[in-house]
């Protein structure tokens, strides 16, 4: 981030507080390099809502045979999600770190749920927390939502590729942001970006 952008304000659109890093940071997933590491690294699963758990459970039969035996055993034992040490609902994990919905294709880790959705086999894509990454969403007690940029070392290749393409985070995540907040909200976000950065 340049000195010029260092002290940009948080923007509010509706009830959503948006970190200026969504406009100033560059990002574009580079699966050829990272091989889907975000699905198999970390110490907890992906944050999920109760509605998303229901969606995952509806899609479970569709993807069941694509999951590892270990993942199937974890789901049989504790379900598709659990409450982590911080009290958050997250997807179940296997081997202490891998999301139970990981599957592999050409040496790359993919989401079985998303692959089924892309192939038209299910109506549920994947948890919104996964779709929005590297944006992290937090809901406050008054219902206000905060969107922050999360910097993770395994995504260094995505930052490089984003810089090469000059692709801001909010543009890279256009479709997930529209799915989460709607077309009109995203148009307001684009206007805010133009005004913020001139």
- What is the arithmetic mean of pLDDT? 91
Main sheet strand line-up: 1-2-10-9
Radius of gyration from the alpha-carbon trace, in angstroms: 17 Å
**What's the total count of β strands?**
10
Ends apart, CA distance between termini: 16 Å
What is the H-and-E element order? Answer: EEHHHHEEEEEEHHEEHHHH
How many helices? The count is: 10
Low-confidence spans: pLDDT under 50, at least 5 residues? Answer: none
- Shape annotation: globular
Q: Provide the helix percentage.
A: 40-55%
Please describe the biggest sheet, giving its number of strands, its sense, and whether it closes into a barrel.
4 strands, mixed
What fraction of residues sit in β-strands? Answer: 15-25%
Structural class: alpha+beta
Protein name: DUF3109 family protein
Pfam families: DUF3109
Organism: Xylanibacter caecicola
InterPro entries: Rv0495c
Describe the structure using short key phrases.
10 strands; 198 residues; alpha+beta; globular; four-stranded mixed beta sheet
Describe the SSE topology.
Layout: E1 11-13, E2 16-18, H1 21-24, H2 31-34, H3 50-63, H4 69-78, E3 81-83, E4 89-91, E5 93-94, E6 98-99, E7 102-105, E8 108-111, H5 112-118, H6 128-131, E9 135-139, E10 145-149, H7 156-165, H8 169-172, H9 174-181, H10 183-197
Parallel strand pairs: 2-10
Antiparallel strand pairs: 1-2, 3-4, 5-6, 7-8, 9-10
Protein name: DUF3109 family protein
Organism: Xylanibacter caecicola
Pfam families: DUF3109
